[in-house]
Amino acid sequence: MQVLTSHLGYPAYGPKSAVVLGTPSTAELVGPQTEPLVIGPAEHVDRWHLGPFTRIELPLRLAPGTYRVVADGVESEPFAVAADPFLATLPDVVAYFRAMRSSGEIDAKDRHAELWADPRGSTVDASGGWLDASGDTSKFLSHLTYTSTMSPQQIPLCVWAMLVSYEETGDPALLEEALWGADFLRRFRSTEGYFYTGVFDALTKRLDERFVTAPLADCVRTSRYQAGYRQGGGLAIAALARASTFDAGLLPIAIEAFEHLEAHNREYLFDGEESIVDDYCALLAAAELIGAGHAAAAPAAERRARSLLARHAGWFTVDRRPFHHAAESGLPVLALLRFAAVQPAATWARSGALQAMSALLTGTHNAVNPFGYPRFGAFFFPHVNDTGYWWQGENANIASLAAAAYACAGHDSDNRAELLAFAEDQLAWIAGRNPFDVCMIHGQGRNNAVYSVDFPPKPGGIVNGITSGWTDERDIAFLPPDAPEGDAWRWAEQWIPHSAWYLLAVATGAAFRKDTLAS
């Protein structure tokens, strides 16, 4: 038997739980408040080889201090209860981004980055920004751009999330880092009007292999490096529009880029067809432009919001299946809420966002699920997908959904308690209350994973996380012994979107707890 808790502890006010690997008959909370605890049913989850698991709810309000949960005499590790233990991790996460800044010989090379297969020998100033991951010194607005619904938002998402988090917390380090990223976006744009998708060295780590390109699977590089809405262009516009509050010179760039994609987006898509990802990225771009004072974006924003909701059948759908993005399933909800915030008459957009989160909660709880992990018909992203190779742990995805749940909780009094519990479940999973007792934030908690001695983890960085089983996709895995050598990245490599979404979830949750729960 093992008692699993958040390694970072829990906020004094709000939902919180422990999960026992085993079938306890008694459980007690020991600490400044000592009291018996109610034990949930012992349950096996899907075909997870671990289990059964028993969920134990902790009191909604606890006095600050150090606690343990004791189940049938088995003690958890001690954990802290404080005003907001997650908020205390943000300085480390911001320091991680600072450590991931492009510098030295990479930055010198990128100052004159060559375009892949360009006979003119053109170059672009791609200096600055952040490197993508532990073992990948690329810079991406997005990769997987040869797919319709799997392109993840990368550097621009980080800028936008930092700006929102700064507005929630007032932490000047977040603003400084956000403006560093915005300055990269300012430069990483063609004179023709589009943003480039990324700089990639085909994983060689060789300076002479760094090109502006959009790779396919197996590191095949292409000259299709024009970023459409779903390929990072939409979030780049959103980030620059939001950052224009602090640097007015960024707003004309965002407006010009938006007008360009309004005219040319389909030309930059491999299939010429817009997807749900184009809708929510374009919606956020237009909403942030409205928020920055560019009212002319309002018709486009309404058109995108209605298109997004037309894909809505409770939760969002793609080809009649629930939309499950491996890195950002919460972003459609947040885009709708942002649009409703800048267009107060668009209450229908807010209602659609709340309905979507309500549907996701229903799907999450309509199965044995003691950890409260999000469920889209299945727990984890499928191995067989449009990329041909890419699947990994989903810490970015679950943090994006936590951010969406916190944001919705401020508008949905009927489902507020359930939304908050769902959000706290995602942060607790990242913080170690998961079946492997692994804290995903390096330098925090226990049992931190190491991807490779050649690419050591940085403090404050967040690893990819837990996936379905290697040979059984209804199982669960984290660095499984049966995985081929070279696949450790799927679980243990750090990636900047994880940290960006975690920042946003923690900042949004902190503001909500401060404004609502504490009162």
Give structural notes:
The protein is an alpha+beta fold and 519 residues long. It has 2 domains: 2-82, Immunoglobulin-like, CATH 2.60.40; 87-517, Glycosyltransferase, CATH 1.50.10. The protein contains 14 helices and 22 strands. Strands 2, 4, 5, 8, 9 and 10 form a 6-stranded mixed sheet that branches. A 5-stranded mixed sheet has the order 12-11-16-15-13, with no helix packed on it. A hairpin with a 2-residue loop joins strand 19 and strand 20. The model has no long low-confidence stretch (mean pLDDT 97).
Q: By helix and strand content, what is the structural category?
A: alpha+beta
Strand runs, count: 22
Strand share of the residues? 5-15%
Q: Rounded to an integer, what's the Rg over CA atoms?
A: 22 Å
* Average of the residue pLDDT scores: 97
Count of runs of 4 or more consecutive helical residues: 14
Provide the helix percentage: 25-40%
